[in-house]
Amino acid sequence: MLGRAPALLAVTRARARVEFLVFIREWISVVFTFIFPVLLLIILGSIFHGQRLPGDVDLAQYFVAGMIGAGLFGVSFQNVAIAIPIERDIGTLKRLAGTPMPRSAYFLGKMVMVAFVALAQNVLLLGIGSAFFGLQLPDTVGRWITYLWVIVLGIASCTMLGIAASGLVRNGRTAPAIMSPIAIVLQFISGVYFVFATLPNWMQTVAAIFPLKWIAQGMRSVFLPDAYRAQEPAGSWELDRVALVLAAWCVLAFLVAVRTFRWRARTDD
């Protein structure tokens, strides 16, 4: 019993290394993961730069905060929900299931890899945002703490959601066609590309069901002035609700994943 935790930690570390090596060998995925958000940030940030929101907030700063949340969502939910069905189709999951490796190490390895990539992407977006679009880095310990727990809960909830969604996809060929549009639509209605308070009420209601809206709101609380919180639909940052919703998605996605995740392709059944 005492040796299980260190053993799991060692296997998870080895599995995370494998996940990272697989990721960097797929250079198209690497380019898309890092370059696409940067290009969007540069193009749309340049378009919005200089336009002012209430609270004397540059619209480009609002957009940068949203893009940080969207990047995290893409790295976790979208990439995981697409990668797992492909791994299932080529037999990787079936082979792993037949080894002595604890199955939990596979999922923990995914989460570690996602966390590493997400943090690297965050550093890149923060650097560009602060250098070219006037993004103000957190100036208090409290804001840095908020930034960290939003990232942790965001990665956990969205990665678990991606794992759960992967069990609902028939095969790896259809995964990008299903998951990419879902991610894009959620970005449009969650306050990433548009000011959330200006969206129709029904869009706000739908977006509030999913994690991305709350991740983006948490990031706005970190990077925008406190004066802007009055412009949020609830008139505040609602950080307690941000934490509650993201934690709830961790639990819900886990329960769904337990029932839907498959180690074998449907053609193997």
Automatic annotation (TrEMBL):
PROSITE patterns: ABC_TM2. Its main location: membrane. InterPro entries: ABC2_TM, ABC2_TM_bact-type, ABC_2_transport, Nod_factor_ABC_transporter. The keyword Transmembrane helix applies. The keyword Ligase does not apply. Keywords: Antibiotic resistance, Cell membrane, Membrane, Transmembrane, Transmembrane helix, Transport. The chain crosses the membrane at residues 27-48, 60-86, 107-132, 144-165, 177-196, 242-261. It holds the Pfam family ABC2_membrane. This is Transport permease protein. It comes from Plantactinospora solaniradicis. The lineage of its organism: Bacteria, Bacillati, Actinomycetota, Actinomycetes, Micromonosporales.
